[in-house]
What does this fold into?
Amino acid sequence: MEVPGRSCPRAYRYPPEALAQPAQLEADTLYVVGGLYGNLAALQALLERADGEPGRPPVIVFNGDVHWLDIDPDDFQAISGTVLAHHAIKGNVEAELASDEAAGCGCAYPDYIGDDVVDRSNQIMVQLRATATRFPELVGRLGALPRYLTASVGGQRIGVLHGDPESLAGWRLALEAMEPGDPLVRRQVDWHGQPTTAADLLDWFGRAEVSVFACTHTGLPYAQDLTDRDGRRRLVINNGSAGLPNFAGTSFGVITRLSTSPQPPADSLYGTWLDGLRCDAVALAFDLDWWTTRFVAQWPPDSPAYERYYMRITQGTPLRLRQAIRGTVTQTARP
It folds into this structure.
């Protein structure tokens, strides 16, 4: 039975081979920005950081869920216009805003995610749709965005995804699904299901013909590398959310930065050097006070988004930075 919020529309699916295409863009430095979630303060911080990048300006790719908590029409319009001026793929939020199918939020939540989370997400989508109906031209453009994108940085091919290599809303690249499993993370989210093994990853990398999967969607950031049978290193890097805090006791978002420059940026949290490509999870510090006030103005106490996100906005998540650093990826931020 199709359950809104849990079902995965057929249009979300694609084979990994779809990424084995000519690169749609080339860059010396690429920012991959997922899970902005309607946070204008984070968007402004992103653009300011890009302006300060040394050398040639970075190319910015938004990889979905740029909207979510921005039910204010001015915020929705401002975010849409800015994002559409850059490279972008759609997330489940943008796909559902442009769809007539009854998939709820389109999150395709696995069964270990509680029904309360699913219900609140579906309720948030109802209110966001009400805002989006005021901007049919923008919604049409968001819905027409591709589901994935292949980029080239320093000769390395990057698969930019929202979910995983088989679905726009897939959860196979969630931190809790990755092997070797983190017992604490799995307990915290009550994970159970099919783990994602090194064999799964190498199969996807080979079929997609990429060295890096840069994704988002599943909420928690991490980077994990592995080596294929030919001795080539591969990397999965999930930025968690650009518009929400990601770690315990922190107030910053996270974006992915991929660059030909070997020097880790000063705001890197962790990263690795991958055959001519510097890959970093970068802290995106935004005006938390402004965002908290703006959020509560749109989603007051007892609203579905307040119940779902207020604690994360004000306190972060239970995730510790060290839990996001996997394989031979190294920490660059001071403890």
